[in-house]
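Quick one, T. Sequence first:
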Amino acid sequence: MELRALALQAFEADDVETKLALTRSLSAQQARISIAFEASIEAAAGQPGRPARPVLIPHTQLPRRSVHTPEGRAALIHAVCHIEFNAINLALDALWRFAGMPEAYYRDWLRVAGEEAHHFGLLHAHLQTLGHTYGDFAAHDGLWTMCEKTAGDITARMALVPRTLEARGLDATPLIQRKLRAVGTSDAQAACDILDIILRDEIGHVAIGNHWYRWLCQRQGLEPVAHYARLTAAYQAPRLKGPLNLSARRQAGFTTQEMAQWGEAAPGPADQ
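Structure tokens:
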């Protein structure tokens, strides 16, 4: 058994349950699995397997729904569920696509893949209690679009996916929880409890991105803050918007220098 080839197999699986089962199996066998560090792995398409639904549309076309209705809360949970599904593929892609990294890199992203699969499972089970299943609502593909852009540059990938796009989840989660708690229903509280687990784990995922981004910059003789600015411009990454969860970002390894440069976007109501 070889980790990166098996990660590609899970990555290309288009059935949700198959993808989850393969990812969980990888996590369970991690102590016994070998890693072909230097191998160049060829993929059939280089695209993640995904089910026919949800239908993917531009994020600007997604309808707005109130969390004060059961349908609105289901749509919100579905949106987060879709983010976690993409995050499984993101972690699997980081495993199979990039050769020549230390063993710890692959072990880190294997851990992330397993935790993202766990998050998806929790959210999907909760979504089913609301009378829906994954695929019932339209979704957008913003997270995977940046993965495609950075497929040829691991440094850009670490900079712009975990420590940029995923870090936005650290800011958004407390705001979502605040809205749900205001609803006051048992299903809204159950969703908040799941989001607590996800926020805790996502701090670790962003920290992994921060660690490997800085490791790569050191290997290439790059100054991390200055190079990050170059990458965000070159890849047209989303601009940082507040309010920011500074406590979570600090735990995830963002430096004082970086936080000082965020300026107007920080701090804000999401800071805990």
